Amino acid sequence: MGHQQDGREPRHYDELGVAPSASPADIRAAYVALARRHHPDRMGASSEQARADAAVRMARVNAAWTVLSDPARRAAYDARLAGPSTTAGGAHVRDPDSSFQPFDTSDDIDPRLFDDTPTGAPSIPRAFALAPATLAAVGVTMILGGAFLGYGGMLIAGFFVLALAGLSFLALPFVALINASRNDRE
After folding, report:
1. Domain containing 9 — which CATH number?
2. Using the 8-state DSSP alphabet, how is residue 2 labeled?
3. Residues in CB range of 176: below 8 A, 6 or more apart
């Protein structure tokens, strides 16, 4: 059962405990039940050996799920299980997947996909990007100073600067979008 080390085809249906005629919903339900039961993360209080056995079993369950959940892979797997097919004239029909050679056999991810370095000119001037935080700090300072010193005009000006900080904070994404669209057009 499962992945065979002796070169034989793994028995994915047996691994999931479903019949070859099982529907995709039945296969998914069997996979989910087995994943819940055998996932190594669910074996917290178990021995190291039990967790290792669960990891091996989970790997076989995942391999079966990978094949049986994809309609094209399942059809190719079913065709391999049925054996070589022949046409009416007795000629053998080659399995279409047997000649497939992937271009890249490694599972490594291209590190360039992780590069999120911005390209082109910055979309927002640095001074404008810092304006909301600066205005908020000045506004709070003016409010505290006006309240401490008893200057009503300073207190009102502080609230005005704080409101201006909020507006500039809300305007910042719009300015970024406008600049980005301008950069895209250039």
Report:
1. 1.10.287.110
2. B
3. 123, 124
Q: How far apart are the first and last CA of the chain?
A: 62
d(CA 81, CA 23): 18
Contact (Cβ atoms closer than 8 angstroms) between residue 61 and residue 47: no
What's the rounded Cα separation, in Å, for the pair 22 and 74? 11
pLDDT, tens digit (0-9, with 9 covering 90-100), for 14-45: 888 898 888 889 889 988 888 888 777 777 77
Q: What sign results for the dihedral spanned by CA atoms 15, 16, 17, 22?
A: negative
Same domain, 141 and 66: no
Residue range of the domain that includes 131:
126-185
Helix (H, G, I), strand (E, B) or coil at 90: coil
φ and ψ of 11, to 5 deg = -100, 85
Q: Name the packing angle between helices 152-185 and 126-149 (round to 10°).
A: 170
Q: Domain total for the chain?
A: 2
Two tokens, residue 183: 């950069």
pTM of the full predicted structure? Answer: 0.41
| Cα dihedral value 106, 109, 110, 112, nearest 10 | -170
118 in a structural domain: no
Tens-place pLDDT, residues 53-104: 888 888 888 888 888 888 888 888 888 887 655 444 555 555 555 555 556 5
